[in-house]
Amino acid sequence: MARILIIDDEAPARKRLQKLLSDSTLASLVSEVHTAEDGVHALQIMETERFDILLLDIQMPGLDGFDVLDRVDPEIRPVVIFTTAFDDYAIRAFEANAVDYLLKPIRADRLKKALERARTLLGHTKDHDDRLGTLLEWIDSQAIT
Which of helix, strand or coil describes residue 67? Predict the structure, then answer.
């Protein structure tokens, strides 16, 4: 189950995503949902909270979605699903390693597929981290002192 941060400057868009995430078909994929009304607020939240997935709008006042990603420490950067009304940023979004690119109005079935893709990626990342940790422990145990 994933901790999700919705970042969107439009209150109706945030509420719609929250409603979709609380739907019975998606609720099993989600443990917590937080919201931020702009990029600055999102960065403030991420200073103290860790999230698995960002549902990130692109065009926002102040910091746009790409600015937010540029300012998030890569070590703690969540999986990103862009949520936008504009299709012109898709290539740039995937170059920024987005897992998916959802056009508004967002349909429940598309959101579910995006979350499942993100969950799969998170599982692979955790598995990779666990294996890397085991390997590093083994290397440390083999070190000659």
Answer: helix
Q: Helix, strand, or coil here: 7?
A: strand
Q: Are 18 and 30 in contact (CB under 8 A)?
A: no
Q: How many helices (H) and strands (E) does the chain have?
A: 6, 5
Rounded Cα distance between 92 and 39, Å, is 18
Question: How many other CB atoms are found less than 10 A from the CB of residue 50?
Answer: 9
Q: Which residue has the tokens 């000659």?
A: 144
Q: Say which DSSP state 88 is in.
A: T
Residues constituting the chain: 145
pTM: 0.84
Evaluate the omega torsion of the peptide bond into residue 12 and state whether it is cis, within 30 degrees of 0: no
Neighbouring CB atoms inside 10 A of 68's CB total 24
- Report the Cα 64 to chain-centroid distance in Å: 15
DSSP single-letter state for residue 77: P
- Per-residue pLDDT tens digits for 56-114: 999 999 999 999 999 999 888 999 999 999 999 999 999 999 999 999 999 999 999 99
